[in-house]
Amino acid sequence: MKLFDKMKSQNPVWRRIVARAFGPTNKGFVMMQSATGAAAGNITLSKIKKGDHLVSALSVSATNGAITDLTAQFRITADAQVNNTGGTATTGSNVIFLWEAFDDE
Predict the structure, then answer these.
(1) Residues sharing a CB contact under 8 Å with residue 75, sequence separation 6 or more, in sequence order
(2) Could you read off the pLDDT tens digit of each residue along the chain, which spans 105 residues?
(3) What's this model's pTM, rounded to 2 decimal places?
């Protein structure tokens, strides 16, 4: 029996950890995606889901590489969408998002 199979069958906690990290969805605990900056408002992230936990939103300037932490301004408002309405515009930057992904198991 392979280690993966042993861990799945012999320990419920490990079964969930292994299933999330290496299971058929290949969905791990921490996800990352970047998006092109825009005016403050909605940004589409194809893999994020309502109920996931946003860990970090970092704006990286395309002109000088300066990094600005905008985590406190962003919220996950719907599946595939984060929003910072009323916050800092990210035009001319790329925004790197990190979040904890949770399955609906």
Answers:
(1) 54, 82, 83, 84
(2) 455 555 445 555 545 555 555 544 544 578 889 999 999 999 999 999 998 989 899 999 999 989 999 999 999 999 999 999 999 999 999 999 999 887 654
(3) 0.71
